[in-house]
């Protein structure tokens, strides 16, 4: 894999000045850390601008903890998604400097320690039942260093609630719109703003909602242009994609 020349030069200078040991330099040049049950991508931040994110669902608390230990040797930012309270408690016992966000089921580097972007994104959700997905999106973006404005419970059943905030929403660079039921909020917002929309369907709804499939299909068929649809309950994807756009704007 090709590497940033400045990274190599800085590493060699560090070894020359005895600020970095040879073993540490070798570790930083490694492509991944072999843990047996996982291969931790150590160069993802160099390739993509953000370190590997840990998906907590399906992993044991011990595995999550070991992955965090591997990542902290190379990256300053940690993000664990879909981690329940029991696993989070175990992780925080070993890494007390991290934060647990119970609504979103996320463990992360403390939000207040991360420098935020000048531009902001808007996270909107239709109802309180969508909060878990909305917070997953919002916190993902914040851990990436993105300024976030939240607009919750602004669904179409009381559309005046959205209009009270539309001026602020329009000033953002991206909107992440999260909704269950028929998913109409994404189409409404798409017709009111001039920036990209990421629509995230949730599994919230009665029987014919089919655990979010109806919402997904409705959002895919939205007539408002500029809307991209993510998978059901994928708040992480919405927040991450929106964060990438802001980083592109501010790095150019």
UniProtKB/TrEMBL annotation:
Which InterPro entries does this one have?
P2CMN_synthase_LarB, PurE_dom
Instruction: Say which domain of life the source belongs to.
Output: Bacteria
Gene3D superfamilies from the UniProt entry: 3.40.50.1970
BP GO terms, sorted: 'de novo' IMP biosynthetic process
GO MF assignments: hydrolase activity
Q: Which residues form the PurE domain?
A: 119-251
* Alphabetized NCBIfam families for the sequence: LarB (NF033503)
Query: Which PANTHER family does the record cross-reference, listed alphabetically?
Result: PHOSPHORIBOSYLAMINOIMIDAZOLE CARBOXYLASE-RELATED, SLL1489 PROTEIN
**Name the record gives this protein:** Nickel pincer cofactor biosynthesis protein LarB
